[in-house]
Each structure stands twice: as C-alpha cells, then as structure tokens.
Amino acid sequence: MTNSNKSTNLEGKWNPSSTEDVIYNNWEKSGYFNPDNLPCANEKGVKKFTAIMAPPNVTGSLHMGHALEDTLVDVLIRRKRMQGFKTLWVPGTDHAGIATQNVVEKKLANKKI
Length: 113
Known about the structure:
By secondary structure, the protein is of the alpha+beta class. The protein has helices at residues 17-30, 64-82, 97-110; strands spanning 48-53, 86-91. A two-stranded parallel ribbon has the order 1-2.
C-alpha cells in the first residue's frame, strides 16, 4: 500500500561520503581508534582482544575468502570493543607461505632465474 500524497526524491546513486565522512570524523575525534582511550584501558585486569590482519597475497588474486575473513574479523573487533575489551587489529604475517613460494618459483622459472 502506498501513500500517493507523499513524493520522495532519492538520489540516483548513493553517495557514501555524504554520511560516512561525518561518522568517521566523529569516531576519530572521540578516540575510538586508540584502545588506550577506552574506559577500561587503565583498569587492572582489563580484558584484551587482538586479531591479525592477513596481508595481501603474492598471487594478486582476491576472492570471496578475503572479503569474508576481513568482514568477520572487523565484526569481531568491533563487538569486543563494544564489550569493553582493549582491542588491537594488527597487520600480520603471510598466511599462505606455500602458495607464495609456488608463485615466486614459477615467476623465477619463467625468467630463467
């Protein structure tokens, strides 16, 4: 059922910066990106939560697994932060050493090195 008395004009394409810039700036000013600014950060026995961000792989091919992993870890970090944990999301080490070695060896073989 629609209300024919109302007219709604929507932009043809959503512009994320119209809302996200304001929110992000508020987060930065509030110190949300610094775990030391959390209310619990200086309390004795504060719970901590750390997650490792996998670096890009040498193959240069992104797949759904990359998107899924980053999304899940982002959700976990945000939830733990809201639960009062002192959180840290850090760049990690290569999680695909065998695949990396395989790609590098093939590239070297193609160059006859």
